[in-house]
Design brief:
With 480 residues, this protein is an alpha+beta fold. It folds into two domains: 7-59 and 121-211 and 313-382, FAD/NAD(P)-binding domain; 89-114 and 213-311, D-Amino Acid Oxidase, Chain A, domain 2 (2-Layer Sandwich). The chain is 30% helix and 22% strand. The chain has 13 helices and 22 strands. The protein has helices at 18-27, 63-72, 76-82, 117-129, 195-201, 280-286, 292-297, 346-364, 371-394, 407-423, 427-437, 449-457, 471-476; strands spanning 10-14, 33-38, 60-62, 86-90, 94-98, 101-102, 110-114, 134-138, 140-147, 152-159, 177-181, 184-187, 209-212, 217-224, 235-238, 249-255, 260-267, 301-302, 307-309, 314-317, 329-331, 337-338. Strands 5, 6, 14, 15, 16, 17, 18 and 19 form an eight-stranded mixed β-sheet that branches. Helix 2 crosses helix 8, helix 8 runs antiparallel to helix 9 and helix 10 packs across helix 12. The longest helix has 24 residues, at 371-394. The protein starts with 9 loop residues before the first strand and ends with a helix.
Length: 480
Amino acid sequence: MSEDPTPARTAVVLGGSHTGMLAARALSGLADRVVVVERDVLPDGPAPRKGLPQARHAHMLWSGGVRAVTELLPGVADALRDVGARRLPVTTDMVVMGSRGWFRRWPESHHVILAGRDLLDATIRAQVLADERVELLDGVEVLGLEGNAGAVTGVRVRSSRRHTTDAPGSGVGDDGVRVVEAGLVVDATGRGSGASRWLTELGLPAVERREVDSGLAYASRLYLAPEQARSGYPIVNVQPDPRDGRPGRAGFLLPIEDGRWIVTLNGSRGGEPSAAEDDFVRFAREELRHPIIGELLERAEPLSDVAYTRTTLNRRHFYERMPAWPENFTVLGDALAAFNPLYGHGLAVAAQSALSLRDVVRRHGWGVPGLSRRLQKAVARPVGAAWDLAVGQDVFYPGATENGPTLRDRLVSAYVGRLMLTATGNGRIARRVTDVTSLERGAEVLLTPSVLLAAAAGPLKPPLTAPPLTVEELKRAGLQ
């Protein structure tokens, strides 16, 4: 039995995290009904949940993503700041040691929003679910797609608890399995997505996929900042230099809500941090290219255990290249392309893809033939820049790919390295670089004649010899 009298006007979004909630918002008002299906039972506020282990690590939302989120949810940036999220100007409040040296803190060109992932998700979720057109089915597992190679007609799910729609006649079997019929199914289930398998089960060919695995391991811990540094502090980031032939080791400290710092340390094969609490500060002080993060942590109070993960693989599914694509199905977010979290682009790309979802449906109309093909191509476009940024670095780590970096990879890396060097001492080039890293503009802005000439000339100012922290910031952190 149909679960809804007009399933063709129902959108089902699989996954209730950042990507799924933004996709639901994008479709509300375009569909008559939007159903979000989430395996976890979602908390009422900012609290941990089993299906989001990456929430224990550092996250940032670059301004390109902030723009997309606020277009979908006007006022959400203010709502985030009201509950304690930080807005930091780029590069004004960033202390960054890149592969070619310390960057200067130039006047604001872009910004980032910093918050714990639980707080970010809870704030966005509350705004999305306040829309009565959006329905949440949590505690529900996705089993597969309904339909055939030509069109998806719904999704099979299994409930772990009873919902109001589970009444007799709703189509729910004794085992809790039912079909939710839909005119559009959006997969936003993240890295664990079963979309490639679901599509082959419908009779479609295997999707082209590329993986680049730097072998990075992540260790993260939450700290209470020294009292004088709790009202705000710059981001501190120490990056590796792939030219030195050593394993890549990096660390970043992000100021988040309630006067806390979230600190993530990472290392590639042979240089991984440990999960031991008593080794966290030592690694930051002794294994990174500069000890500043370790020195800051020696004066901060740990608030959590060390969270550890090796889930840092770059994986991209090229669904937009499939020779055949079913109607009524779209994949976005980490289910489409998952990035090494080091670069902080996953949240922004997901937001931009959700905005593309809305715009394409608005432009072409709900349910028109070929809509899903157009959607899949559109949501893949924001992926490209972030993918190139991540893979362009990670491909050089030993064992990252089967055949190593290509000639194109080497040429691009050489040019990007020259740009990074120039950006340490040229504010205009630093702004062009952050145009791209913030996902506000495409990489083509780095290939204009004026940028090419500036890169050839190199930095205009001499290199910095120490972290560009002010005397006041050093004092507030107890370093002077």
